[in-house]
Amino acid sequence: AAKHAGKDRIVRFDPDLRAAAARHRELAAGLRRALAEDEFELHYQPVVRLADGRITAVEALLRWPAAGVPPLAFIPVAEATGLIVPLGWWVLRQACTDARAWHERDGVAVTVNVSGHQLREQDFVERVLAVLDETGLPPAALVLELTESVLVDDAERTARLGRLRERGVRIAVDDFGTGYSSLAYLVHLPVDILKIDRTFTASGVDSTLMRVILQLAEGLSLHTVAEGVETAAQATALRSLGCQYAQGYLYSRPVPAGSLFM
Ligand code: C2E
Ligand code: MG
Ligand code: MG
Ligand code: MG
Protein backbone atom coordinates (compact mmCIF):
# COMPACT_ATOMS: atom_id res chain seq x y z
CA ALA A 1 0.00 0.00 0.00
CA ALA A 2 2.80 2.42 0.90
CA LYS A 3 4.31 1.95 -2.54
CA HIS A 4 1.24 3.33 -4.23
CA ALA A 5 0.47 6.01 -1.71
CA GLY A 6 1.10 9.57 -2.84
CA LYS A 7 3.73 11.70 -1.17
CA ASP A 8 1.29 13.91 0.72
CA ARG A 9 -0.65 10.89 1.88
CA ILE A 10 2.46 9.55 3.62
CA VAL A 11 2.90 12.83 5.41
CA ARG A 12 -0.69 12.92 6.62
CA PHE A 13 -1.28 9.31 7.50
CA ASP A 14 0.49 6.12 6.64
CA PRO A 15 -0.98 3.03 8.30
CA ASP A 16 2.07 0.94 7.36
CA LEU A 17 4.40 3.38 9.03
CA ARG A 18 2.20 3.62 12.08
CA ALA A 19 2.07 -0.17 12.39
CA ALA A 20 5.83 -0.37 12.04
CA ALA A 21 6.30 2.20 14.79
CA ALA A 22 3.96 0.25 17.07
CA ARG A 23 5.85 -2.98 16.37
CA HIS A 24 9.12 -1.23 17.12
CA ARG A 25 7.81 0.06 20.48
CA GLU A 26 6.41 -3.34 21.36
CA LEU A 27 9.67 -5.07 20.51
CA ALA A 28 11.67 -2.52 22.50
CA ALA A 29 9.50 -3.11 25.57
CA GLY A 30 9.78 -6.86 25.08
CA LEU A 31 13.57 -6.67 24.89
CA ARG A 32 13.79 -4.59 28.06
CA ARG A 33 11.65 -7.11 29.92
CA ALA A 34 13.56 -10.06 28.44
CA LEU A 35 16.86 -8.64 29.67
CA ALA A 36 15.45 -8.11 33.16
CA GLU A 37 13.98 -11.62 33.19
CA ASP A 38 17.07 -13.29 31.80
CA GLU A 39 15.40 -14.63 28.68
CA PHE A 40 18.36 -14.34 26.34
CA GLU A 41 20.63 -17.20 25.41
CA LEU A 42 23.84 -17.59 23.48
CA HIS A 43 24.40 -20.05 20.71
CA TYR A 44 27.88 -20.77 19.45
CA GLN A 45 29.14 -21.42 15.94
CA PRO A 46 32.58 -22.97 15.36
CA VAL A 47 35.33 -21.25 13.41
CA VAL A 48 37.43 -23.93 11.73
CA ARG A 49 41.07 -23.83 10.60
CA LEU A 50 41.03 -24.91 6.96
CA ALA A 51 44.48 -26.51 7.09
CA ASP A 52 43.45 -29.23 9.53
CA GLY A 53 39.76 -28.84 10.23
CA ARG A 54 40.30 -27.99 13.87
CA ILE A 55 37.91 -25.71 15.75
CA THR A 56 40.01 -22.74 16.86
CA ALA A 57 37.21 -20.44 18.03
CA VAL A 58 33.48 -20.20 18.51
CA GLU A 59 31.35 -17.14 17.76
CA ALA A 60 28.76 -16.20 20.37
CA LEU A 61 25.41 -15.38 18.72
CA LEU A 62 22.51 -13.94 20.65
CA ARG A 63 19.18 -15.76 20.76
CA TRP A 64 15.77 -14.91 22.24
CA PRO A 65 14.03 -18.28 22.28
CA ALA A 66 10.98 -17.28 24.33
CA ALA A 67 9.94 -14.75 21.70
CA GLY A 68 11.12 -16.64 18.63
CA VAL A 69 12.32 -13.39 17.09
CA PRO A 70 15.57 -13.72 15.10
CA PRO A 71 18.58 -11.47 15.83
CA LEU A 72 18.27 -9.64 12.53
CA ALA A 73 14.82 -8.49 13.70
CA PHE A 74 15.61 -7.55 17.31
CA ILE A 75 19.23 -6.35 17.20
CA PRO A 76 18.42 -3.25 15.13
CA VAL A 77 15.76 -2.35 17.71
CA ALA A 78 18.22 -2.95 20.55
CA GLU A 79 20.67 -0.69 18.70
CA ALA A 80 18.10 2.06 18.14
CA THR A 81 16.96 2.08 21.77
CA GLY A 82 20.43 1.83 23.32
CA LEU A 83 19.48 -1.47 24.91
CA ILE A 84 22.30 -3.09 22.95
CA VAL A 85 24.71 -1.67 25.55
CA PRO A 86 23.48 -3.60 28.63
CA LEU A 87 22.63 -6.53 26.37
CA GLY A 88 26.13 -6.47 24.92
CA TRP A 89 27.67 -6.59 28.39
CA TRP A 90 25.47 -9.54 29.25
CA VAL A 91 26.69 -11.29 26.09
CA LEU A 92 30.34 -10.63 26.84
CA ARG A 93 30.11 -11.88 30.41
CA GLN A 94 28.16 -14.99 29.45
CA ALA A 95 30.45 -15.80 26.53
CA CYS A 96 33.60 -15.44 28.63
CA THR A 97 32.06 -17.57 31.37
CA ASP A 98 31.10 -20.32 28.93
CA ALA A 99 34.40 -20.17 27.06
CA ARG A 100 36.73 -20.55 30.00
CA ALA A 101 36.43 -24.34 30.19
CA TRP A 102 36.63 -24.74 26.40
CA HIS A 103 39.76 -22.65 26.37
CA GLU A 104 41.38 -24.59 29.18
CA ARG A 105 40.56 -27.92 27.61
CA ASP A 106 40.96 -27.28 23.89
CA GLY A 107 42.62 -23.88 23.54
CA VAL A 108 39.49 -22.58 21.84
CA ALA A 109 38.92 -18.81 21.69
CA VAL A 110 35.55 -17.09 21.88
CA THR A 111 34.54 -14.34 19.50
CA VAL A 112 31.95 -11.76 20.54
CA ASN A 113 30.05 -9.19 18.47
CA VAL A 114 30.41 -5.66 19.85
CA SER A 115 28.12 -2.77 18.96
CA GLY A 116 29.42 0.70 18.22
CA HIS A 117 27.32 2.01 21.10
CA GLN A 118 29.25 -0.18 23.52
CA LEU A 119 32.59 0.93 22.21
CA ARG A 120 31.50 4.53 22.70
CA GLU A 121 31.44 4.09 26.48
CA GLN A 122 34.27 5.88 28.27
CA ASP A 123 35.15 2.89 30.41
CA PHE A 124 34.85 0.28 27.67
CA VAL A 125 38.42 -0.98 28.06
CA GLU A 126 38.21 -1.22 31.85
CA ARG A 127 34.92 -3.07 31.66
CA VAL A 128 36.20 -5.64 29.17
CA LEU A 129 39.29 -6.23 31.30
CA ALA A 130 37.11 -6.55 34.40
CA VAL A 131 34.96 -9.20 32.71
CA LEU A 132 38.07 -11.14 31.73
CA ASP A 133 39.39 -10.86 35.24
CA GLU A 134 36.14 -11.95 36.87
CA THR A 135 35.54 -14.88 34.54
CA GLY A 136 39.16 -16.02 34.49
CA LEU A 137 39.35 -16.07 30.68
CA PRO A 138 42.81 -15.07 29.39
CA PRO A 139 42.73 -12.01 27.09
CA ALA A 140 44.30 -14.06 24.30
CA ALA A 141 41.20 -16.25 24.29
CA LEU A 142 38.90 -13.34 23.41
CA VAL A 143 38.20 -11.86 19.98
CA LEU A 144 35.98 -8.78 19.62
CA GLU A 145 34.12 -8.43 16.31
CA LEU A 146 33.24 -4.98 15.02
CA THR A 147 31.86 -3.88 11.69
CA GLU A 148 33.78 -1.60 9.36
CA SER A 149 31.57 1.45 9.89
CA VAL A 150 32.16 1.27 13.65
CA LEU A 151 35.90 0.92 13.21
CA VAL A 152 36.42 3.88 10.91
CA ASP A 153 34.21 6.19 12.90
CA ASP A 154 36.52 7.88 15.34
CA ALA A 155 40.03 7.94 16.67
CA GLU A 156 39.06 7.66 20.32
CA ARG A 157 37.27 4.38 19.78
CA THR A 158 40.13 3.04 17.71
CA ALA A 159 42.52 3.90 20.53
CA ARG A 160 40.35 1.89 22.95
CA LEU A 161 40.70 -1.16 20.76
CA GLY A 162 44.43 -0.57 20.58
CA ARG A 163 44.66 -0.65 24.37
CA LEU A 164 42.78 -3.95 24.54
CA ARG A 165 44.99 -5.34 21.83
CA GLU A 166 48.07 -4.48 23.86
CA ARG A 167 46.62 -6.72 26.57
CA GLY A 168 46.28 -9.60 24.12
CA VAL A 169 42.63 -9.31 23.07
CA ARG A 170 42.25 -9.72 19.30
CA ILE A 171 40.09 -7.54 17.07
CA ALA A 172 38.19 -8.77 14.02
CA VAL A 173 36.49 -6.78 11.27
CA ASP A 174 33.06 -8.39 10.85
CA ASP A 175 31.22 -8.59 7.51
CA PHE A 176 34.31 -7.28 5.75
CA GLY A 177 33.65 -5.83 2.31
CA THR A 178 30.09 -4.67 2.87
CA GLY A 179 30.29 -1.54 4.96
CA TYR A 180 32.88 0.88 3.74
CA SER A 181 34.33 1.84 0.43
CA SER A 182 37.89 2.70 1.41
CA LEU A 183 40.57 0.23 2.33
CA ALA A 184 43.03 2.79 3.60
CA TYR A 185 41.71 2.56 7.12
CA LEU A 186 42.86 -1.03 7.44
CA VAL A 187 46.51 -0.02 7.48
CA HIS A 188 46.05 2.18 10.55
CA LEU A 189 43.59 0.17 12.56
CA PRO A 190 44.44 -2.16 15.42
CA VAL A 191 42.92 -5.26 13.84
CA ASP A 192 44.06 -8.87 13.58
CA ILE A 193 41.37 -10.68 11.62
CA LEU A 194 39.17 -10.03 8.59
CA LYS A 195 35.90 -11.89 8.55
CA ILE A 196 34.97 -11.88 4.88
CA ASP A 197 31.26 -11.35 4.45
CA ARG A 198 29.06 -14.25 3.47
CA THR A 199 28.00 -12.51 0.25
CA PHE A 200 31.53 -13.01 -1.16
CA THR A 201 31.49 -16.71 -0.26
CA ALA A 202 28.05 -17.08 -1.80
CA SER A 203 28.91 -15.33 -5.02
CA GLY A 204 31.87 -17.60 -5.78
CA VAL A 205 34.92 -18.20 -3.61
CA ASP A 206 37.25 -18.08 -6.64
CA SER A 207 35.99 -14.68 -7.75
CA THR A 208 38.43 -11.85 -8.42
CA LEU A 209 37.02 -10.00 -5.43
CA MET A 210 37.71 -12.88 -3.05
CA ARG A 211 41.25 -13.21 -4.38
CA VAL A 212 41.89 -9.50 -3.96
CA ILE A 213 40.59 -9.52 -0.39
CA LEU A 214 42.76 -12.52 0.51
CA GLN A 215 45.84 -10.89 -1.02
CA LEU A 216 45.14 -7.65 0.76
CA ALA A 217 44.85 -9.50 4.07
CA GLU A 218 48.09 -11.32 3.44
CA GLY A 219 49.87 -8.08 2.62
CA LEU A 220 48.65 -6.60 5.89
CA SER A 221 49.43 -9.77 7.87
CA LEU A 222 45.79 -10.19 8.83
CA HIS A 223 44.18 -13.56 9.35
CA THR A 224 41.11 -14.33 7.25
CA VAL A 225 37.87 -16.07 8.11
CA ALA A 226 35.40 -16.80 5.31
CA GLU A 227 31.81 -16.49 6.55
CA GLY A 228 28.90 -18.55 5.32
CA VAL A 229 30.79 -21.58 4.04
CA GLU A 230 28.12 -24.11 3.15
CA THR A 231 29.79 -26.59 0.79
CA ALA A 232 32.96 -28.69 0.82
CA ALA A 233 33.82 -27.28 -2.62
CA GLN A 234 33.85 -23.76 -1.19
CA ALA A 235 36.11 -24.87 1.67
CA THR A 236 38.56 -26.57 -0.68
CA ALA A 237 38.74 -23.56 -2.99
CA LEU A 238 39.15 -21.13 -0.09
CA ARG A 239 41.96 -23.18 1.35
CA SER A 240 43.83 -23.27 -1.95
CA LEU A 241 43.44 -19.49 -2.26
CA GLY A 242 45.13 -18.99 1.10
CA CYS A 243 42.14 -18.32 3.32
CA GLN A 244 43.02 -19.64 6.77
CA TYR A 245 39.71 -20.08 8.56
CA ALA A 246 36.08 -20.75 7.73
CA GLN A 247 32.74 -20.57 9.43
CA GLY A 248 29.40 -21.76 8.17
CA TYR A 249 26.68 -24.37 7.99
CA LEU A 250 29.13 -26.85 6.39
CA TYR A 251 30.73 -27.26 9.81
CA SER A 252 27.87 -26.41 12.12
CA ARG A 253 24.94 -24.12 12.62
CA PRO A 254 25.08 -22.04 15.78
CA VAL A 255 24.22 -24.42 18.66
CA PRO A 256 23.58 -24.10 22.41
CA ALA A 257 26.67 -24.19 24.64
CA GLY A 258 25.79 -27.67 25.90
CA SER A 259 25.86 -29.28 22.46
CA LEU A 260 29.13 -27.74 21.27
CA PHE A 261 31.88 -30.18 22.14
CA MET A 262 30.11 -33.49 22.43
P1 C2E B 1 27.35 -11.98 12.17
O1 C2E B 1 28.12 -11.51 13.35
O2 C2E B 1 27.97 -11.73 10.84
O3 C2E B 1 27.09 -13.52 12.42
C1 C2E B 1 27.01 -14.48 11.40
C2 C2E B 1 25.58 -14.75 11.00
O4 C2E B 1 25.56 -15.60 9.86
C3 C2E B 1 24.78 -15.48 12.07
O5 C2E B 1 23.43 -15.03 11.96
C4 C2E B 1 24.90 -16.94 11.63
O6 C2E B 1 23.87 -17.76 12.12
C5 C2E B 1 24.82 -16.78 10.14
N1 C2E B 1 25.48 -17.88 9.43
C6 C2E B 1 26.55 -18.60 9.83
N2 C2E B 1 26.92 -19.51 8.92
C7 C2E B 1 26.06 -19.37 7.88
C8 C2E B 1 25.91 -20.06 6.61
O7 C2E B 1 26.67 -20.96 6.26
N3 C2E B 1 24.90 -19.63 5.81
C9 C2E B 1 24.05 -18.64 6.16
N4 C2E B 1 23.07 -18.31 5.32
N5 C2E B 1 24.15 -17.97 7.35
C10 C2E B 1 25.14 -18.34 8.20
P2 C2E B 1 22.59 -14.65 13.26
O8 C2E B 1 22.94 -15.52 14.41
O9 C2E B 1 21.16 -14.58 12.82
O10 C2E B 1 23.09 -13.20 13.60
C11 C2E B 1 22.89 -12.15 12.71
C12 C2E B 1 23.69 -10.93 13.11
O11 C2E B 1 23.21 -10.39 14.33
C13 C2E B 1 25.17 -11.21 13.36
O12 C2E B 1 25.88 -11.30 12.15
C14 C2E B 1 25.54 -9.99 14.17
O13 C2E B 1 25.76 -8.88 13.34
C15 C2E B 1 24.28 -9.76 14.98
N6 C2E B 1 24.48 -10.33 16.32
C16 C2E B 1 24.29 -11.59 16.76
N7 C2E B 1 24.59 -11.70 18.07
C17 C2E B 1 25.01 -10.47 18.47
C18 C2E B 1 25.45 -9.92 19.72
O14 C2E B 1 25.60 -10.60 20.73
N8 C2E B 1 25.76 -8.58 19.74
C19 C2E B 1 25.65 -7.80 18.62
N9 C2E B 1 25.98 -6.48 18.72
N10 C2E B 1 25.25 -8.28 17.43
C20 C2E B 1 24.92 -9.60 17.35
MG1 MG C 1 29.98 -11.62 13.90
MG1 MG D 1 29.82 -11.63 10.27
MG1 MG E 1 26.91 -10.80 9.18
From TrEMBL:
The chain holds residues 218 to 479 of 479 of the full protein. This is Diguanylate cyclase (GGDEF) domain-containing protein. It comes from Dactylosporangium siamense. Residues 24-262 form the EAL domain. It comes from the Bacteria. Keywords: Membrane, Transmembrane, Transmembrane helix.
